[in-house]
Design goal:
It comes from Mesorhizobium montanum. Helices cover 0% and strands 53% of the residues. It contains no helices and 21 strands.
Length: 215
């Protein structure tokens, strides 16, 4: 297993009125983050909030190319980011114990923090398709270039982990600085991860290892 220190490229926030950062996702231009009462869109260049949607947002956030998905207690809401309207709702697999959320391969991937699992679920029904076991608390979840990564946060320690999507074996870890937690996780599809910082109210950009900008 490869181990390395996480390289933090930039910190955003804290933001007025947003005491927490729960879920995080990226729509190709804006970073969306959940603060409990709203989902906010952050311009990663300027660091400014450019849009907010009033919706319960207690954990993970995802984007499927058109719609946002947001965990609200024991439900997952599908949201039109243009209008801010909730257009569908499905049950979350952890019944309120859910954490990270990602979109990949036509499915939603949902972390369960204390259960230490990641579920692949049907985005129309919420039915569990398969489950990947982890050996640490699961926070944020993301897929990039066929790699499955998830955040962990236990006590004062937090890291980003690349795991085998079949066995759950840990293949690589990026250790965050002490006291720097990861609540949500998303890739920009290139050389950066966006990480929610929980009660710090911050979003952090972390370098993704092994990405070659020339390919």
């Amino acid at each position: 297993m490869k181990r390395a220190a996480a390289e933090i490229l930039r910190e955003y926030g804290p933001f007025p009125g947003a005491e927490r950062v729960n879920g995080v996702t990226y729509d190709g231009k804006k970073v969306w983050f959940a603060d409990g009462d709203k989902v906010n869109a952050l311009d990663p260049e300027s660091g400014a909030i450019v849009q907010s949607i009033d919706v319960a947002s207690h954990a993970g956030t995802a984007f499927d190319g058109k719609h946002l998905y947001q965990i609200a207690e024991d439900r997952i809401h599908k949201i039109d980011p243009g209008t801010g309207k909730v257009i569908a709702t499905i049950p979350a697999p952890g019944n309120g114990g859910d954490s990270g959320l990602a979109w990949a391969e036509g499915s939603l991937w949902v972390g369960q923090h204390r259960a230490r699992r990641i579920h692949q679920i049907d985005p129309e029904t919420g039915k569990i398709i398969r489950t990947i076991e982890s050996n640490r608390v699961v926070t944020g979840v993301t897929w990039v270039d066929g790699e499955l990564w998830h955040g962990t946060w236990e006590g004062d320690e937090s890291d980003l982990r690349r795991v085998d999507p079949r066995s759950g074996e840990v293949l690589q870890t990026l250790e965050m600085p002490a006291g720097t937690g990861v609540s949500g996780l998303e890739s920009d599809g290139k050389g950066c991860f966006f990480c929610g910082g929980g009660g710090s109210g911050k979003v952090r950009a972390v370098r993704r290892p092994g990405y070659d900008a020339g390919t």
